[in-house]
């Protein structure tokens, strides 16, 4: 009889608070499964990495690993990178069966978790029809180069706006796509609403959350007559834990629908040659010599675990093999080419304001110059 263990696969973050919050979520899941080994690991940046978590389960005698992505939407990390790590691990450990679940997605429990954060921000327990007709909702999604993941964030906005009865709503994104947070908030002001609720659809804290709140504060200073309300990120609410439990159950019992089978879809793309399996350069690696200050914990090493690269897909997300950056630091991963990199309301509006350094090489020189001139004028006017 097989011994089952659970593996929660996170993205990873340079933020220690985000790491700790993910660990707390894993601890709460362990409480739900007192008789089952539960481990977690990160795809990049953070410790433990996914390989470490898988090894821990194997060391506990587990021969059926039920892995689920700790991610809100199915972009390339959930579709390609994590399945690649799991497939490689299973190939190296043929006695172990690995079942892979789906992303959290727009499960009713996740909708409830998001609405709870918005109610909390509004300082109310419930709403009556018409309470929010004079208020606007701005949902902040992560933003990826995966069009369908971005569309899910827009779908979420519509669901929340209609459920709660907001007068108007808009979706903005903190990352790759458009509109960016700053541009979206400036456009929102033009609609004339005197109360704007900004709700980030993020699991945990980190630099992106800080950046989102900073954008809100910056725009709020230009419109003192408007009340901006910042909602909290999701964190480890019971609703979120309940969703993980459902996703684990689906994977364990094989109840995944064909269009939600991320591992099956990955293997089909792999068989067709649409993705390659490569090393994940930003994955955490333990320090070999603790006295060696030149040996970082997140090594860009060819010994790191594998992940995939999409072939010929400008909407894909890939982790490049050239990790040097002319602007002063190594980032550990790179993004695929984004076809709307020059969109006037997209990533270009974040140049020199926290845009991922992976995109800097994609901007034509004239766009960088234009945005820096715009930023300089803005700073001078302030």
Index terms:
382 residues, alpha/beta, Rossmann fold, 3 domains, 39% helix
**Which strands sit side by side, in order, in the main sheet?**
2-1-3-4
Distance between the termini: 69 Å
Return the CATH class of the largest domain: Alpha Beta
Choose one word for the global shape. globular
Number of helices: 11
How confident overall, as mean pLDDT? Answer: 82
Hey, roughly how much beta strand do the residues contain?
5-15%
Tally of DSSP β-strands: 10
Radius of gyration: 21 Å
CATH architecture of the largest domain: 3-Layer(aba) Sandwich
Low-confidence stretches: 287-334
* Count of structural domains: 3
The major β-sheet equals:
4 strands, parallel
Structural class: alpha/beta
Listing every helix as H and every strand as E from the N terminus to the C terminus, the arrangement reads: EHEHEHEHEHEHEHEHHEEHH
Give helix % range: 25-40%
The CATH topology label of the largest domain is: Rossmann fold
Describe this structure as you would to a colleague.
This protein is an alpha/beta fold. It has three domains: 1-102 and 256-319, 3-Layer(aba) Sandwich (Rossmann fold); 108-230, Rossmann fold; 324-329 and 339-382, no CATH class. The chain has eleven helices and ten strands. It has helices at 16-32, 50-59, 76-92, 108-122, 147-164, 181-189, 207-222, 238-253, 262-271, 357-360, 365-381, and strands at 4-10, 38-42, 64-69, 97-100, 135-141, 168-173, 195-200, 227-230, 275-279, 306-310. The strands form three sheets. The protein has a four-stranded parallel sheet with strand order 2-1-3-4, with helices on both faces. β7 (195-200), α7 (207-222) and β8 (227-230) form a beta-alpha-beta unit. α3 (76-92) packs across α9 (262-271), α4 packs antiparallel against α8 (238-253) and α6 (181-189) runs parallel beside α7. Mean pLDDT is 82; it is low at 287-334.
């Amino acid at each position: 009889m097989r011994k089952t263990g659970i593996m929660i696969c996170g993205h990873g973050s340079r933020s220690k608070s985000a790491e700790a919050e993910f660990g707390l979520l894993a601890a709460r899941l362990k409480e739900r499964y007192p008789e089952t080994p539960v481990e977690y690991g990160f795809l990049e940046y953070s410790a433990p990495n996914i390989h470490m978590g898988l090894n821990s389960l194997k060391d506990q005698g587990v021969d059926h690993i039920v892995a689920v992505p700790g991610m809100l939407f199915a972009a390339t990390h959930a579709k390609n990178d994590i399945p690649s790590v799991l497939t490689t691990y299973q190939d190296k450990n043929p006695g172990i069966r690995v079942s892979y679940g789906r992303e959290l997605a727009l499960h009713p429990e996740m909708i409830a978790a998001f609405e709870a954060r918005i109610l909390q921000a509004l300082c109310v327990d419930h709403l009556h029809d018409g309470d929010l007709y004079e208020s606007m909702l701005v949902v902040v999604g992560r933003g990826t180069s995966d069009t369908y993941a971005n569309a899910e964030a827009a779908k979420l906005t519509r669901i929340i706006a209609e459920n709660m009865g907001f007068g108007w709503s808009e979706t903005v994104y903190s990352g790759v796509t458009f509109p960016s947070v700053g541009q979206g908030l400036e456009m929102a002001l033009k609609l004339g609403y005197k109360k704007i609720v900004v709700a980030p659809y993020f699991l945990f804290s980190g630099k992106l959350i800080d950046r989102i709140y900073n954008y809100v504060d910056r725009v709020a200073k230009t419109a003192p007559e408007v009340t901006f309300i910042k909602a909290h990120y999701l964190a480890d609410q019971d609703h979120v834990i309940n969703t993980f439990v459902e996703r684990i159950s689906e994977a364990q019992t094989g109840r995944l629908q064909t269009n939600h089978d991320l591992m099956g879809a990955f293997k089909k793309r792999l068989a067709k040659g649409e993705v390659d399996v490569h090393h994940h350069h930003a994955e955490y690696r333990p320090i070999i010599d603790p006295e060696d200050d030149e040996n970082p914990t997140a090594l860009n090493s060819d010994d790191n675990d594998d992940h995939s690269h999409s072939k010929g897909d400008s909407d894909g997300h890939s982790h490049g093999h050239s990790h040097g950056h002319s602007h002063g630091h190594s980032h550990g991963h790179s993004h695929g080419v984004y076809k709307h990199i020059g969109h006037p309301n997209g990533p270009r509006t974040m140049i020199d304001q926290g845009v991922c350094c992976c995109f800097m090489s994609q901007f034509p020189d004239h766009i960088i110059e234009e945005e820096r001139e715009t930023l300089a004028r803005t700073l001078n006017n302030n």
